[in-house]
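Backbone shape codes
____________________
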Amino acid sequence: MTEYTRQNISSGSVWEPVVGYSRAVRAGAFVFVAGTTASSPDGAVGGADAAAQAREIFVRIGAALQQAGASFEEVVRSRVYLTDIADFDAVGAVHGEIFGAIRPALVAVAVGALAAPDLLVEIELDAIIGAALPTS
């Protein structure tokens, strides 16, 4: 049986110990980033703009990846949850700004609601350290 060293990565969210989750978990070369939103004590960062929320989410995900020793270039799978599928083009464009050349596997789905009514987007992803595309 293969054994992996586990590293839990916290964002400092008050919900992590209450709900019992980590922003990300690294197990060996694998990094799993939990569903991430643009939530803040003052409401969603980006307000009612799904693309602005997505940009904030990718800032947060980027920080988690860095703490895990990974990067966006090593992402192999991405999942986008939208409360309104009409926001797909706007959020997809933000996703494309980051992943246009990387092209991880992607699913985007509409959901009935997220954890708070002002949250429009939630994104989670998986990375494998060492899976970055070669540079030329």
Summary: The mean pLDDT is 95. The two ends are 37 Å apart (CA to CA).
